[in-house]
Amino acid sequence: MNIFRLLGDICHLVAIIVLLLKIWKTRSCAGISGKSQILFALVYTTRYVDLFFTYVSLYNSVMKVIFLASSYATLYLIYVKFKATYDFNHDTFRIEFLLIPCVILSLLITHDYSPVELLWTFSIYLEAVAILPQLFMVSKTGEAETITSHYLFALGAYRALYIVNWIYRYYTESFIDGIAVVAGIIQTILYADFFYLYITKVLKGKDFKLPA
Amino acid sequence: YQRYRPKDEL
């Protein structure tokens, strides 16, 4: 464990908590893409099946359980408890356009053809693009609530910090995993536009609105 | 260089 990975995990945790609190406190999931949240639940489910086979550390297991539980709690809030506030008219991204290529890619480029390894590879590819329905929704409505933009920033920053962690591990542990690195870089690039607007607008106290 | 799945990462 190094500081970059720890900070990345903290950002990830903060993002999830911010999203849950936003929905809970405002009693509304307006502006949140349920489809992105379905994809994230799928990402955690397929990646953390190794919870039952591989023990790394208490930290590792606890975080996995938190990510799994919070992703399903988020789905419950969006699709059950606060369903009336779910903005399905703007959440129109076709997730099969992400799921099918991710399945195919994980069958083509993987470390090993074992079920756990294939599921992990799929989860890495899917995570890279899972935010697209949310970004699509923001681009459709042209705006995001400030709290939603904080959520997106923390979620994007997490993988960016992981990239620094991989560079660090490359030099200190001679460790490199091509699949995670390439997917992680693509994932971070998808947030780049958002990062720019977040830093130039939200951090200066303005609302997050896309340029007309 | 070791190339494998980083099992310790989340």
What does this structure look like?
The complex is a heterodimer of chains A (212) and B (10). Chain A contains nine helices and two strands, in the order H-H-H-H-H-H-E-H-H-H-E. Chain A has helices at residues 3-26, 34-47, 58-81, 96-108, 115-129, 132-141, 146-173, 178-190, 192-200; strands at 143-144, 208-209. Helices cover 71% and strands 2% of the residues of chain A. With 212 residues, chain A is mostly helical. Chain A has one domain. In chain A, helix 2 (34-47) runs antiparallel to helix 3 (58-81). Chain A is globular and about 45 Å long. The model of chain A has no long low-confidence stretch (mean pLDDT 96). With 10 residues, chain B is mostly loops. Chain B contains no helices and no strands. Chain B is elongated, with a radius of gyration of 7 Å. The mean pLDDT of chain B is 79. The chains are: A mainly alpha (212), B little secondary structure (10). Chain A binds chain B through residues 1, 5, 9, 12, 50, 54, 56-57, 60, 63-64, 67, 111, 117, 120, 162, 165, 169-170, 173-180, and chain B through 1-10.
- Please provide the count of β strands of chain A: 2
Distance between the termini of chain A: 44 Å
Structural class of chain A: mainly alpha
Mean pLDDT of chain A: 96
**Could you estimate the helical fraction of the residues of chain A in percent?**
over 70%
**How many individual helices of chain A?**
9
Largest beta-sheet characterization of chain B? none
Percent in strands of chain B: under 5%
**What's the shape of chain A?**
globular
pLDDT < 50 stretches of chain B:
none
What number is the mean pLDDT of chain B?
Answer: 79
Anisotropy-based shape of chain B: elongated
Q: What structural category characterises the helix and strand content of chain B? A: little secondary structure
Secondary structure: helix percent of chain B: under 10%
Helix-strand topology string of chain A: HHHHHHEHHHE
